[in-house]
Amino acid sequence: MKGFWHDAAEFFPILMSGVALTILVTIGSLLLSTVLGLIWAMMRVSGIKVLSMLSASLINVIRGIPIIVLLFYLYFVMPDLGVTLSALQAAILGLGIAYSAYQAENFRAGIEAIDKGQIEAAQSIGMGWWLTMRRVVLPQAVRIVLPPYGNVMIMMLKDSSQASTITVAELALQGKLIASSTFKNTNVFTMVALMYLTMSIPLILLVRHFEKRAGKK
Amino acid sequence: MIELNDVHKSFGQNEVLKGITASVQKGEVVCIIGPSGSGKSTILRCINGLESYDRGEISVEGLKVDRDASSIVKVRTQVSMVFQRFNLFPHRTVLENVVEGPLFVKREPRAQVLERGRALLAQVGLAEKADAHPPQLSGGQQQRVAIARALAMQPKAILFDEPTSALDPELVGDVLGVMRKLADDGMTMVVVTHEMGFARDVADRVLFIDGGVIVEQGPAKTLLNQPQHPRTQDFLRRVLHPL
């Protein structure tokens, strides 16, 4: 045990630099996936057939490709097409796109859960599609959408470790580098696991809070 | 003011309106009665474009009702609607519900709209509930808020779609009272209702609809007291003397 604390003190600063990147990748891809997911969801419920079909096929394509392949594509294939991305950019873009499909389905479920009478009431006072969304549907959908949104946040935090496969030196990669150079696998990966857990716990509590609030209504 | 000319409407194979021709004059109160599934609500919903119609023409103040045209917003700001299930916005306060349309659709000045909103809530007897949220109110109170919301648009006419059908019996009177006062003040109203007492006392004219056609129409008292058509007679007998 003494050895663990000793190693922990030694490796902590290096692993913390990985944590910083993990948080950066998570927040960056969370924002991107939220914006893209909202766009896909709006297209899906727009009532315009072309947009709705385009969004549905896009979501299916994204869902059908593993995150890791998407990352490889952005990082290794795009340069051949003349677009060079840094590892960090590719990671945020890849995870953001991959998760936008799940965000979109989540948002759509929230929007479609709103009572049709609400939309008719909005129309009956002269609201158009966009105003109805903004003033009536989305504010009510947020309550429904938040608990699953929190779960997506947790999943994204953990899946940010896949960025290690394209050389982003986030927590998982830093751990792997230390472990392979010191052979202290047990201590290093225990630390890595504990650090992921430490970051997840506030999010888990947040989800519980959302669920309570949504349940109250 | 509201004109329907040979209006047809089908849901799939089921033709629910089979050529409705009617008109509502300014200041008139028209009640539409008839068995459920006869197309009463569909008529109202076609008038403000919540539902499309297949053939014929509906116009409000000379403006054709077409739910896919941008002019539908103008129609809807002139003809308000009160729903059976109130459909208040639960995430906004009572006052916010009332001022939503004038503020965000008609873009009227805030101070003026808020003042009018409070006055309307006082008019329906709910001034002290301005800051409550709809789920905290009884059904009757919610429906009165919905009427205030409709009035806040300063409409030329209001459509009521079975406004008291979802209410506990003891709460019906308050809502009908507010509607009666509106009628007395000269508001143009089209009311789909099962409240025959209200129809008799308040309506100028009653339309009896069955099977998607107007079977009989006339002055309220005449139609309700001496119905001519056997189907009207049969319907009224069942509604007035259910046992």
Automatic annotation (TrEMBL), chain A:
GO terms for biological process: amino acid transport. Its main location: membrane. GO terms for cellular component: ATP-binding cassette (ABC) transporter complex. Signal peptide: none annotated. Keywords: Amino-acid transport, Cell membrane, Membrane, Transmembrane, Transmembrane helix, Transport. The keyword Transport applies. It is found in: Cell inner membrane; Cell membrane. Pfam families: BPD_transp_1. GO terms for molecular function: transmembrane transporter activity. The keyword Cell membrane applies. PANTHER family: L-CYSTINE TRANSPORT SYSTEM PERMEASE PROTEIN TCYL, MEMBRANE COMPONENT OF AMINO ACID ABC TRANSPORTER. This is Amino acid ABC transporter permease. It comes from Bradyrhizobium rifense.
From TrEMBL, chain B:
Keywords: ATP-binding, Nucleotide-binding, Transport. PROSITE patterns: ABC_TRANSPORTER_1, ABC_TRANSPORTER_2. CDD domains: ABC_HisP_GlnQ. The keyword Ribosomal protein does not apply. Residues 2-236 form the ABC transporter domain. Pfam families: ABC_tran. GO terms for molecular function: ABC-type amino acid transporter activity; ATP binding; ATP hydrolysis activity. InterPro entries: AAA+_ATPase, ABC_ATPase_HisP-typ, ABC_transporter-like_ATP-bd, ABC_transporter-like_CS, MetN_ABC_transporter-like, P-loop_NTPase. The keyword Lipid biosynthesis does not apply. Belongs to the ABC transporter superfamily. Involved in beta-(1-->2)glucan export. Transmembrane domains (TMD) form a pore in the inner membrane and the ATP-binding domain (NBD) is responsible for energy generation. This is Amino acid ABC transporter ATP-binding protein. It comes from Bradyrhizobium rifense.
